[in-house]
Write a structure and sequence with these properties.
The structure is a single chain. By secondary structure, this protein is an alpha/beta fold. It is built from 17 helices and 22 strands. It has a six-stranded mixed beta sheet with strand order 6-7-8-3-9-10, sandwiched between helices. It has a six-stranded mixed beta sheet with strand order 16-19-20-13-21-22, with helices on both faces. Strands 2-1-4-5 form a four-stranded antiparallel beta sheet, with helices on one face. β14 (about 315-320) and β15 form a beta hairpin. Bound molecules: adenosine-5'-triphosphate. Adenosine-5'-triphosphate (ATP) binds next to β2, α1 and α14. This is ABC transporter domain-containing protein. Keywords: ATP-binding, Cell membrane, Membrane, Nucleotide-binding, Repeat, Sugar transport, Translocase, Transport. InterPro entries: AAA+_ATPase, ABC_carbohydrate_import_ATPase, ABC_transporter-like_ATP-bd, ABC_transporter-like_CS, P-loop_NTPase.
């Protein structure tokens, strides 16, 4: 069977970075083709070339259904049947589902106006194909992230796509939503659509892929049917070194000393899009890693935002036995808090600034002498973190917008850890991070706790929470629904507390 798409000898050079080096890739319709690789391996760059966002260096070529093509731009890619769904969803919250699906190609009636009846009917037909029981006139802003993703899939189907690329599609989904999505992926493949599935969640790759291609340092190092791949082999191919253990033996460094005490924390005027948080009370001990688990929308991030002063609250927060009124993040930072936020682009980084500038934002005063910044010391410290966290960047002066997603995440972790907060809140710290880097982040959190830092970890990754937390608090609909010690907690009881 002629492959749907073939990429030959694809290279891509950015200033100072060879992102891709002679990559070949063959994709068939009706197959789920997983692409795996460490952060910065070149997966997204390859997809950008496939969808016409970037041009490859001379010497590479692409064939679609046996014909050589130069994919000029994303509109051209779409006309060839190639669509991409990015992790950061491209839907407009204040438009309806139908308006999102047919954005910029709405059916027009005789009077030259949008034919809403026709558009809603066409949207309903696509939604029905996906077994989605949603009214096409509903506002997308009222949907869950999983449902928004389905709207993107519906849009891709409405373009008559022959190949749909999904870049870390489950990264922001709940367990249930991820299961629904994977079922959908299998169904689309069964209908003859080719799927490229990029994921750092290896279990998903084994669950749905027919073929897996492994990329490392801009090259394809392996490509084979999934039946011929094992988890250990996949990891070895990806990281090219032995990973001692994903989650090492758990050792608690928690003391009896209460550092942070939260009493009856509730949200002051919840907004339309936020989960309501009511009456949350807990203590965080010195040297403790406290895990927060809950389904998406359970209120985990909202609680952390209240403690960090970026969201108004009622209730009482004490640090070292002293009540503090955290009116804004600067108060929290002065009290010794740090917050690795969940949303890396909107909240975590200044994308147009360099790695060094982002890194030192949290602790610039450390490098100041009189009124001047000691650039040499700042750069040296930044280089130490680039080294220790394995941040893939050609130099500290690279703009963070040019880093791969996982490496951007590592910059956020670095900037807060370098400040040495007494209490570090990390919200989804390993989202989009590859298996090797994940083990390194866990080891780093353990080391910080051993040195006396108190850490709150919010994660939707249940194995991660179970492995690294000394204690776990489970939330459901904005309230605490369970609490477990490391020894007591397991997949079943934590999940049961989260779902009720
Ligand atoms: N516009 C750009 N300018 C300079 N370098 C870039 C640019 N885009 C990507 N790169 C670099 O190319 C390399 C490959 O990045 P890419 O985003 O393709 O990796 P990835 O495999 O998708 O990683 P992740 O799993 O973290 O998303 C990285 O070193 C990245 O910093």
């Amino acid at each position: 069977m002629t492959p749907f798409l073939e990429m030959h000898n694809i290279s891509k050079t950015f200033p100072g970075v060879k992102a891709l080096n002679g990559v070949d890739l063959t994709l068939h319709r009706g197959q789920v083709h997983a692409v795996a690789g460490e952060n910065g391996a070149g997966k997204s760059t390859l997809m950008k070339i496939m969808t016409g966002v970037l041009r490859c260096d001379p010497g590479g070529w692409i064939e679609v259904e046996g014909q050589e093509v130069v994919i000029a731009d994303p509109v051209h890619a779409r006309s060839l049947g190639i669509t991409i769904i990015y992790q950061e969803l491209a839907v407009v919250d204040n438009l309806s589902i139908a308006e999102n699906i047919f954005l910029a190609r709405e059916p027009i009636n005789m009077a030259g106006l949008i034919d809403r009846k026709k558009m809603n009917a066409a949207a309903a037909a696509v939604l029905a194909e996906l077994d989605m029981k949603l009214n096409p006139t509903m506002l997308v802003g009222d949907l869950s992230i999983g449902q928004k993703q389905m709207v993107e899939i519906a849009r891709a189907i409405s373009y008559q796509s022959k190949l749909i690329i999904m870049d870390e599609p489950t990264a922001s989904l709940s367990h249930h939503e991820a299961t629904v999505l994977m079922r959908m992926v299998k169904k689309l493949a069964a209908q003859g659509i080719g799927i490229v599935y990029i994921s750092h969640r290896l279990e998903e790759i084994f669950e749905i892929a027919d073929t897996v291609t492994v990329m490392r340092d801009g090259e394809t190092v392996d490509s084979r049917p999934i039946a011929e791949m094992t988890r250990d082999l996949l990891v070895r191919k990806m990281v090219d070194r032995e990973l001692s253990q994903f989650f090492g033996e758990h050792v608690s460094h928690a003391t009896n000393e209460v550092l942070l005490s939260v009493r009856n924390l509730s949200m002051y005027r919840p907004t339309h899009h936020s989960a309501r948080v009511s009456d949350v009370s807990f203590n965080l001990h010195k040297g403790e890693i406290l895990g927060f688990f809950g389904l998406i929308g359970a209120g985990r991030t909202e609680i952390m935002e209240m403690i960090f002063g970026s969201r108004a609250y009622v209730g009482e927060i004490s640090i070292d036995g002293k009540t503090v009124k955290i009116t804004d993040p600067s108060v929290a930072i002065n009290e010794g808090l740090g917050f690795v936020t969940e949303d890396r682009k909107a909240q975590g980084l200044v994308l147009g600034m360099s790695v060094r500038e982002n890194f030192s934002l949290t602790h610039l005063a450390d490098y100041c002498r009189l009124d001047f910044v000691d650039r040499g010391r700042e750069t040296k410290r930044c280089r130490e973190f680039i080294q220790s966290l394995g941040i893939k960047t050609p130099s500290p002066e690279q703009k963070v917008v040019n880093l791969s997603g996982g490496n951007q995440q590592k910059v956020i972790i670095a900037k807060w850890v370098a400040r040495r907060p007494r209490i570090l809140i990390v919200d989804e710290p390993t989202r989009g991070i590859d298996v090797g880097a994940k083990a390194e982040v866990h080891a780093l959190l353990n080391k910080l706790a051993e040195e006396g830092m108190s850490i709150i970890v919010v994660s939707s990754d249940l194995p991660e929470i179970l492995a690294i937390s000394d204690r776990i608090i489970v939330l459901k609909e904005g309230r605490i629904s369970g609490g477990f010690t490391h020894q007591e907690a397991n997949q079943e009881n934590v999940m049961l507390a989260a779902t009720g």
